[in-house]
Amino acid sequence: MERVLITGGGGFIGSHLARRLFKKGDFVRIADIKFEDYIREKYCNEKSQLDLRILENCLTATKGMDKVYNLAANMGGIGFITEVGAEVMHDNVLINTYMLEAARQNKAKRYLYTSSACVYPTFRQIDPQVVGLREEDAYPADPDNFYGWEKLYTEKLCEAYQRDYKMDIRVLRYHNIYGPEGTFKGGREKAPAALCRKIAEATNPGTIEIWGDGKQTRSFCYVDDAVEGTVRLMESYYDKPINIGSERLVSINELTDIITKISGKKIEKTYNLNAPQGVRGRNADITLSKKVLDWEPKIDLEEGLVTTYKWIEERVKEDRA
Ligand SMILES: NC(=O)c1ccc[n+]([C@@H]2O[C@H](COP(=O)([O-])OP(=O)(O)OC[C@H]3O[C@@H](n4cnc5c(N)ncnc54)[C@H](O)[C@@H]3O)[C@@H](O)[C@H]2O)c1
Question: What percent of the chain has pLDDT over 90?
Fold first, then answer.
């Protein structure tokens, strides 16, 4: 039985990953500063409530673990990462530096770091009809926000630990992962969850506010697909940064229309042009993940959004009750 640590295991992707590995039969320890427990069934063997900005806590978390998936991060959707810079960089540099060092000291056999599409340079993302970003496009560096700069710094930190300590490390770059059982309210939610919540809360007929003009584009990858890609990368030989995302580019207006159709409501959009909207267009190129991981997303955006919308609609009803 393999002993696996998932940091950020109380959060969105981490809890899905934990459930997947727990069901497979691994011994799964999750470490997080808080546990939302959106997943209602048992999804791990051990839960450790730890602040991973502290080295001693990282040493406790990694003790006796074969594989470490480091997903813990102080992060959120575009609203949060546009507004909060210092805290995001401070906390994440500490978490990522101490987690890597603790895994080294405790001799973890393999370590995986979850970076982000936010590392890619702004100058490649100024048009809604953007070309998919390839891994090598990260340089020359010019991430859009502080969160992206920290992710890029930690990618380099991983590279240094690979070179100097011969640590066995994997690095992936998620592109907009969405799905049920994740943050959908409170200011840290991402666009798909925020739109599902707004539409679930709206009257029928009703109106919702879109951030920006809705013409900004992104690609969205369902969480089960992301988890599959994450596990495949951990099990692979590939030790350089790699994209995990979808190549289907949609505008925020199109995303809203898909969710509206699922809801069965008649929804009108209003636009807040002063709200944060990030880069103008961003898409993933997953040629490399297809080649080295034999991985690509299997779940259609429409299909994934049905599950996501239904789950969020239920939570909105619960909150009202
Ligand atoms: N969701 C996405 O679309 C996406 C895209 C790119 C990268 N990522 C990265 O993937 C990882 C997981 O993202 P997610 O969407 O599940 O986010 P999430 O916010 O749901 O999960 C992150 C978890 O880290 C925990 N955490 C924060 N500070 C901590 C601390 N000091 N000590 C211990 N735990 C702490 C949080 O409590 C949270 O549960 C993150 O590293 C994130 O940057 C996610």
Answer: 99
Q: Is the CB of 51 under 6 A from ligand 1?
A: yes
> Tokens at residue 318, please?
């619960």
Say yes or no: 171 and 98 in one domain: yes
Q: How far apart are CA 305 and CA 88, in angstroms?
A: 29
As annotated, the active-site residues are: 147
Instruction: Please state, rounded to an integer, the average pLDDT across all residues of the chain.
Output: 98
pTM of the entire structure?
0.98
Strand runs (DSSP E) across the chain, as ranges?
A: 3-7, 27-32, 46-49, 67-70, 110-116, 169-174, 177-178, 206-211, 217-219, 221-222, 242-244, 249-251, 267-272
pLDDT tens string 145-177:
999 999 999 999 999 999 999 999 999 999 999
**Any ligand 1 atom below 6 A from CB of 11:** yes
**Domains identified in the chain, total number:** 2
